[in-house]
Amino acid sequence: MSSPAGAAARAPRDLSTDERIIRLLLLLVLLYLFLVAVDLLGAGIAGLGEEFTDRLFRGVGNPLSALCVGVLATVLAQSSSVTTATIVGLVGAGVLGVGDAVPMIMGANIGTTVTNTLASVGSIRRPEEFRRAFAGATMHDFFNLASVAILLPIELATGIMGRLAVVLSDVVGDAAGGEFNSPVRGAVAAGAGLVESAVAAVPGPMRLGALLLLAAGLGLIFATLVAITKNMRVVVAGPAERSLNAVLGRSGVLGILVGTILTVSVQSSSISTSLLIPMIAAGVLRLENAYPVTLGANVGTTITALLAALAIPQIAGLQIALVHLLFNVAGILIFYPVPYLRRLPLRAARAVADHAVTRRTMVFVYIILVFVVAPLSVIVITR
Fold first, then answer.
1. Rounded distance, CA 12 to CA 43, Å?
2. What are phi and psi of 10, to 5 degrees?
3. C-alpha closest to that of 382 among 67, 55, 54
4. pLDDT digits (tens), the chain, 383 positions
5. Region of residue 94 (left: phi > 0; alpha: psi -120 to 50; beta: else)
6. Phi–psi pair at 59, nearest 5 degrees
7. What is the CA radius of gyration of the chain?
8. Alpha-carbon span 180 to 303, nearest angstrom
9. Angle at 31 between CA 28 and CA 35, to 5 degrees
10. Are residues 156 and 327 in contact, defined by beta-carbon separation less than 8 angstroms?
11. Residues 290/136, Cβ–Cβ less than 8 Å
């Protein structure tokens, strides 16, 4: 069991330049494998829920049901970028109205946080690391839940974001379509593709393949997370750790910018926020400094839907993509400038993490209840 005193007693020695370079290279390899694991996890869950996801989007008229569809579809796809791009396509094709799609877009923000919550479970056998990691994951949950709790009723009552999106779409509607192929995303997909090809060669039903990918993803996440946490603590300890926190702690806006750029680079808020978990677990990155980075991830993830919308001739696709951007920016503007409101998601996350350390079964209950049982129940009841 770790403790602050114990951690201090085991403070890592200074590394030589050669040792630090080797450790950094090892860390890069481990981070790459961690991203591949997250990709495999998503492929496994998507394989299990593909037909179910397709059915989810059909015939949604109740806003609460639409919100839960967004949550569940994103949990199954393991990517809010995939969900929002799908919604943009459905809106652009006239299958969904912009008004019906707004709650789904908000639900995608909630669903995308399940990945970093699952990543935090990799530290569950080391209480202090797990306390930090679970708080780091759930602060994103609480921020997104609070944003939806405030902005969904306002949008349903006033339609203000939808109207603003119409105005903005008139301004940028004539822009040319575009596509951004992230090299990081491509490298991760290549690694995951090798594992998926090996699994595809295993005889059996498709669901068996999805289960194997799910198991491979979870196993690799656990293994890489342990190794990353240990190495990161050694490599980033001391002056580098203080510098990282000093830079991110200097300005929340800088943290938001870092989160936005990181998420645009990897084209997945699930991946970018999951990358923070081992740094938070190792104590390298303080929770307060990681918080604005996760908010920036919310903004960065909207780029995929915007790019998809620019390639769709119908203006409605662009309007719903702009609603996604406006929703995430509005959430930050509501919570971040006011210190009391800014700290609410952090306080809630720390409280839940304290309980989770002493009652670890609660973690799995929380994940299943928030991301599966609750949204599924609402969908069944309201349809």
1. 37
2. -100, 30
3. 67
4. 444 444 444 445 566 777 778 888 887 888 788 778 767 766 776 676 656 555 666 656 788 888 888 888 888 776 676 677 777 767 766 777 888 888 988 988 888 888 788 888 877 888 888 999 999 989 988 999 999 999 999 999 998 888 888 888 777 655 444 444 556 667 777 888 888 888 888 777 767 788 888 788 777 866 776 777 677 666 655 555 566 666 676 778 888 988 888 777 666 677 778 778 888 888 878 888 899 999 998 998 887 677 666 656 678 878 888 898 999 999 999 999 999 999 999 999 999 999 998 888 888 888 888 888 888 888 888 76
5. left
6. 65, 40
7. 21
8. 9
9. 140
10. no
11. yes
Largest CA distance in the chain: 63
User: How far is C-alpha 66 from the chain's CA centre?
Assistant: 20
Q: For residue 238, is it left (φ>0), alpha (ψ between -120 and 50) or beta?
A: left
Tally Cβ neighbours within 10 Å of residue 364: 12
Residues shown for the chain? 383
Interacting residues of 338 by C-beta distance below 8 A, sequence separation 6+? none
Burial group, residue 174, by CB count within 10 angstroms (0-12, 13-18, 19+): exposed
**How many other C-beta atoms can be found within 10 angstroms of the C-beta atom of residue 264?**
20
Dig out the tokens for 215 from the structure. Answer: 């198991």
Q: What is the H or E stretch that residue 264 is in?
A: helix 252-266
Residue in the block written with tokens 């309980």: 355
SS3 237: coil
Q: How far apart are CA 195 and CA 39, in angstroms?
A: 10
Contact in structure between 117 and 367 (CB atoms under 8 Å): yes
The answer to whether residues 73 and 108 touch, using CB atoms and an 8 Å cutoff, is yes
Q: Token pair 């990799």 is at which residue?
A: 122
- Please tell me the distance from the alpha carbon of residue 268 to that of residue 185, in angstroms, as a whole number: 9
Instruction: Quote the pTM value.
Output: 0.73
**CA distance linking residue 49 with residue 82, whole number of Å:** 14
Exposed, middle or buried, 259 (CB in 10 Å: 0-12/13-18/19+)? buried
Q: Helix, strand or coil for residue 194? A: helix
**Euclidean distance between the first and final Cα of the chain, in Å?**
48
